Amino acid sequence: MEKKIIIELHDVSPFYKNELLNILRMLYEHGIKKFSILLTPNFKGRYRLDKDNSFKDLIKCLKQEIILHGLYHEGKFSLRHILATNREGEFADLSKEETRRRIVEGNKILKNCGIDTHFFVAPAWINNKYLEKILTEQKFKGIGNRWSIKIFNKKKIFSPIITLSNRNILSFLSKKSAKTLIKLYKNFETIRFAIHMQDANDSEKIILWKELIEQTEKRRLISYEDLTSES
Ligand SMILES: [Zn+2]
């Protein structure tokens, strides 16, 4: 069994330009030539991708797979999701119409930039019951969840995520547990790293990501698109 890894860069937006550059430097220093960019087209309703030409050009120059990652990356405060996220569950309680509007709008901003996308990951991995149907209707090929990637009408690939949470309470715990996690995940065929832009502002997290990348360097780097063609 050949082991594989998908490296995902989460929350990519003009808001995190410096963070992105630092993370890209780290990846290139480790010879990582394939990764997936999770783009948020209008972060917090204030950082539209198509209004920032240099950032847009940077993204296109990277020539990597683009995954739509919400529209604003912001949701209402929700007691139900407080353990999973800090107001990042953009899609948690949206109506069908608003879910569709955000997917269409996000896609439109990417199209304005000349960027194609076929996959979606919800902020904080919090979906709602309309999401898959709307994504299918909008010609998306699949969705990434916390434990698996679903290719619509085809298959579901078990591929757990390793993430270093950005929430203060959980931050310490996940730093401690990342190495334990990698041991646990060692036998899984396909794993994913979720490197968040905010991780770039925490030197301990960057050190940890470097270690994790080194520990998994024998795995073949793949994309979501690669999964659609593999058996
Ligand atoms: Zn996110």
Architecture overview:
This protein is an alpha/beta fold and 231 residues long. The chain has one domain: TIM Barrel (Alpha-Beta Barrel). It has helices at 17-29, 53-62, 96-112, 131-137, 168-185, 203-215, 224-229, and strands at 4-12, 36-39, 42-43, 47-48, 65-68, 119-121, 142-144, 148-151, 155-158, 161-163, 190-196, 220-221. Strands 1, 2, 5, 6, 7, 8, 9, 10, 11 and 12 form a ten-stranded mixed beta sheet that branches. The chain has a two-stranded antiparallel ribbon with strand order 3-4. A hairpin with a 3-residue loop joins strand 3 (42-43) and strand 4 (47-48). Helix 5 (168-185) packs parallel to helix 6 (203-215). The model has no long low-confidence stretch (mean pLDDT 90). It binds zinc ion. Residues 10-11, 69, 73, 88, 123 line the site of zinc ion.
Itemize the secondary structure elements and their pairings.
Blueprint: E1 4-12, H1 17-29, E2 36-39, E3 42-43, E4 47-48, H2 53-62, E5 65-68, H3 96-112, E6 119-121, H4 131-137, E7 142-144, E8 148-151, E9 155-158, E10 161-163, H5 168-185, E11 190-196, H6 203-215, E12 220-221, H7 224-229
Parallel strand pairs: 1-2, 1-11, 1-12, 2-5, 5-6, 6-7, 10-11
Antiparallel strand pairs: 3-4, 7-8, 8-9
The structure holds zinc ion (ZN).
